[in-house]
Amino acid sequence: MAAIEIVHRCLGERPIAARRFDNGIQHYVYEVSFTHRASLVIRMTVPEQRQAMVGAKFLSAKLRPLGVPLPEIVSSGVEDRFPWLLLERLSGTDIGDVLGDLSNDAIDRVAMGVANAQRCVSSIEGEGRFGYAIHPRMRRIAVGTK
């Protein structure tokens, strides 16, 4: 499996398992498990979606220092034939899997966390009132951009 091979190549340690997340709509995302370390997540995509992966790397570098709760990027291969990011595995369960079971207080706390993340995001330079771009001055980012 490509996910296991990429992680093995990056870390020099072979994962014991890879489990594909069954939610999400765009990329191939797997939790990879190890014998002697915490699980990681590998997010892979097709060449046509390279800019999404480049953009995720770019935005992570901008937003994590502001306190937006994004996983640390352990390694990346955005220039590989099939782009990928190796990420820390955040604790918890996907909100889509548990939202119906949460109390109103818990939903309020989630909403406050989202609002705080939006406040952090609004502090960086943007594309304009209604637009969205990974980088405000260009629609595409060069692959080597940090």
Describe the fold and architecture.
This is Aminoglycoside phosphotransferase domain-containing protein. InterPro entries: Kinase-like_dom_sf. It comes from Pararobbsia silviterrae. It is a single chain. The protein has helices at 2-11, 50-63, 95-98, 104-122, and strands spanning 17-20, 28-33, 40-44, 73-76, 84-88. It is an alpha+beta fold. It has one domain: Phosphorylase Kinase, domain 1. It has a five-stranded antiparallel beta sheet with strand order 1-2-3-5-4, with helices on both faces. A hairpin with a 6-residue loop joins strand 2 (28-33) and strand 3 (40-44). The mean pLDDT is 87.
Structural descriptors:
Aminoglycoside phosphotransferase domain-containing protein, single chain, Kinase-like_dom_sf, alpha+beta, 146 residues, 5-stranded antiparallel sheet, 32% helix
